[in-house]
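Hi Y.,

Following your request, here is the sequence exactly as I used it, all 232 residues.
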Amino acid sequence: MVSLNTKRFCVSCGREDVELIGLLCPSCYSKRKELFSVPRSISIKTCKICGSQWSSGKWMKAGDVEDTIYVEIMKHASIDENVKEYKADVELSKDKNGKDIAIVIFTGKIGNENISIRKDVYINNENSLCDSCMKKRGRFYDAIVQLRSKNGNLNEKRVFFESFFSREIVDNLSDVKIGKEGIDYYFINRTIAKRLVSSITSMMKVEVKESFEGESLKNGKRNGKLVISLRI
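Below is the corresponding structure, written out as tokens. Let me know if you'd prefer a different format.
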């Protein structure tokens, strides 16, 4: 009677009675397979005026550049399905020619074997204009808040009015014009302008009038720049 050898062994190194992934032991599998792949290069678009960064299809306020680069790299990364308990760390550096690179250290496990892989990703920095800064440069606006004083003492009222300004409101201003009658604040987004007015009217009694500049009717809907007259 012939005895059959039923021992498990790696077809590459011949090790017996080891954990196998397919026909390979974890060590040989990690050497033969590309466990972690990333793009050779990525492009990071930054607004040259406010520093906002283009990420995940929209402009984001300036933050940690490494976080933005990490998101862009991992969005295009590919990880072998047999890798477990993995993570990736990103460190910014330069190559020998002075070009910006992201050093990605990928760690994880294949079976009981620990793995550590380094990948270098070149970074193409693109200077651009975000939507908000482009509109500011073109003096685009969708709403005007006209600050007027009941008693003629405008400076005091201006200090009070601008005390309600958040960073969002300041970023949304495309222009400020001072005239004999008062001060006009030009807003890119009318929702933010209305929110500002609502905050003030909730604190004190003021005269508020709304109208439209260049008003027209289309499909029964008003079109035009919103003008809010605020008399304090």
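DSSP finds six helices and 13 strands in the chain.

Thanks again,
Q.
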